[in-house]
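Example S7 (structure tokens).
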């Protein structure tokens, strides 16, 4: 540090020699000029007018020379310095800035689709905050770790060493305190945030840890503070933060409590544990609040030992500061985009689930009132086709009924080939018999089974459209099997059968004579006319086959 200050005070030898040579040249020229003017004066003494004109010309030339010297020696260097400083003004890398801006633009387009007003306003507010961050003038350092690691002591030592007098905290909430300081050699202001400790007991401790983790994800540079070897509970958040791209310095605080050999051993072990997450040079030992020492009966409080951390922190911020800001802005934009997509996906799934619920009972009603020898989704292809069209529309995919029917038939054949049709009938029949305590007529079982199969088909199509009309690596078979396993769980089957009894079984009037033609068997089921027309054609085709 002293050598750097000396270089700023004393002039380099080469510049000093050049200055001496320049002064000698100027002095020689002045002596020559005085001698020349003296001789010229005697030669022109016979013509005073000519002499005065020449003298005015010489004085004008001297004035120009003096003015030019002042300009080049004083004015021009200052102007160049200002232009150089302007060129040095920190600029976030353009490519990452553009990527963040594009992500924010996409988020705004997605926000319009979100129906939840609270969620929509939250996303809009966060997008504005990130936009402001794009042009902010500070670097954000977050101090993260357990409450016993000495985070606050480290913050106090950094502030006292790097900024002298500690200013008022920018925020004094339970999430921590934020301090502002300037660091020599950096054009950006630095904000240091002391977060709540992690791994604290109780509900309040868990909530504070969540806040601390949130602050850590928003940091440009993370100071991860430890007071011993790295525990698994500390390694996990460090790994998570590293995986999302967070740059971290791992700090072994309270190093004064260990003998030098033990300290070196712990540092070596730490560097081995975080290999691949943190560079060896970024694992540093400090003593932010050293223990007092008693010498000859006098208690002495040693100064904090944090210079290794300051040197490393300064080196990282100078070399990578702008990239750290750009990476953080891009990360926050991407996370906001992911949240928007998650909210829209959950909204669409709820809406699509309602579509499936509606069509499964339409399907049950059609099968229950239309006697068939077996349950076959080919007989309800028109219903499932319309369901596919409506689900696709929710996901922004406009497909026609013919394409919907092709998809429905394909999935129906897959259900049959996998044995899911027979499995569904067995599950439904067993559950109905157990719930009602007696045997049921075939069409009741067929109707409820058709609803059950339509549900599996609908849930499968939701996954298909969620993934941009792609069944995934396992194809339609894997998706259908997964939905069948999800929908055969005991708790779901019980709830499904109870609703089916109300919607399908009871309207069939099992204990009475069949209803007359003008009394609908299933008043709760209303089938759209266009579906009915298509169903009649499908039934005719099915009978022929």
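Recovered sequence:
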């Amino acid at each position: 540090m002293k050598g750097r200050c000396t270089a700023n005070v004393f002039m380099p030898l080469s510049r000093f020699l050049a200055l001496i040579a320049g002064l000698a040249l100027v002095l020689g020229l002045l002596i020559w000029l005085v001698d020349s003017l003296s001789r010229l004066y005697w030669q022109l003494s016979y013509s005073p007018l000519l002499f005065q004109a020449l003298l005015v010309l010489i004085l004008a030339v001297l004035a120009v020379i003096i003015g030019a010297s002042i300009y080049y020696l004083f004015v021009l260097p200052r102007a160049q310095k200002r232009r150089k400083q302007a060129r040095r003004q920190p600029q976030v890398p353009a490519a990452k800035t553009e990527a963040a801006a594009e992500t924010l633009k996409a988020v705004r387009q997605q926000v319009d689709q979100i129906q939840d007003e609270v969620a929509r306003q939250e996303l809009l507010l966060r997008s504005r905050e990130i936009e402001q961050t794009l042009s902010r003038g500070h670097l954000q350092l977050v101090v993260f770790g357990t409450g016993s690691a000495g985070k606050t002591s480290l913050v106090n030592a950094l502030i006292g060493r790097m900024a002298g007098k500690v200013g008022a905290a920018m925020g004094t909430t339970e999430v921590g305190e934020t301090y502002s300081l300037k660091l020599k050699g950096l054009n950006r202001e630095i904000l240091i945030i002391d977060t709540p400790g992690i791994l604290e007991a109780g509900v309040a401790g868990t909530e504070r840890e969540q806040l601390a983790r949130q602050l850590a994800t928003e940091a440009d540079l993370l100071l991860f503070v430890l007071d011993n070897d790295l525990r698994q509970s500390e390694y996990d958040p460090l790994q998570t933060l590293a995986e999302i791209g967070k740059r971290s310095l791992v700090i072994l605080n309270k190093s004064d409590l260990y003998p030098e050999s033990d300290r070196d051993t712990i540092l070596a072990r730490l560097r081995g544990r975080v290999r691949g997450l943190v560079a060896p040079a970024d694992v540093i030992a400090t003593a932010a609040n050293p223990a007092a020492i008693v010498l000859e009966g006098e208690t002495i409080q040693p100064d904090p030992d944090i210079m290794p951390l300051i040197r490393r922190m300064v080196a990282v911020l100078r070399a990578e500061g702008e990239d750290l800001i750009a990476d953080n802005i891009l990360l926050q934009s991407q996370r906001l985009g992911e949240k928007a997509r998650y909210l829209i996906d959950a909204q669409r799934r709820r809406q699509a689930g309602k579509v499936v619920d509606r069509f499964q009972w339409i399907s049950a009603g059609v099968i229950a009132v239309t006697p068939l020898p077996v349950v076959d989704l080919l007989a309800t292809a028109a219903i499932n086709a319309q369901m596919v069209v409506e689900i696709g529309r929710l996901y922004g995919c406009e497909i026609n009924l013919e394409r919907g029917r092709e998809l429905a038939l394909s999935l129906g054949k897959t259900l049959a080939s996998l044995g899911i049709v027979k499995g569904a009938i067995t599950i439904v029949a067993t559950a109905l018999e157990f719930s009602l305590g007696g045997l049921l007529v075939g069409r009741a079982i067929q109707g409820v089974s058709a609803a059950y199969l339509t549900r599996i088909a609908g849930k499968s199509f939701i996954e298909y459209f969620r993934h941009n009309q792609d069944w995934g690596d396992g194809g339609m078979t894997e998706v259908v099997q997964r939905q069948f396993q999800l929908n055969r769980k005991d708790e779901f089957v019980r709830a499904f059968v109870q609703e089916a009894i109300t919607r399908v079984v009871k309207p069939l009037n099992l204990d009475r004579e069949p209803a007359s033609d003008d009394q609908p068997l299933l008043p709760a089921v209303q089938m759209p006319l266009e579906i009915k027309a298509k169903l009649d054609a499908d039934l005719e085709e099915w009978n022929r086959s």
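Notes on this example. Residues 1-11, 85-90, 163-173, 510-528 have pLDDT under 50 and may be disordered.
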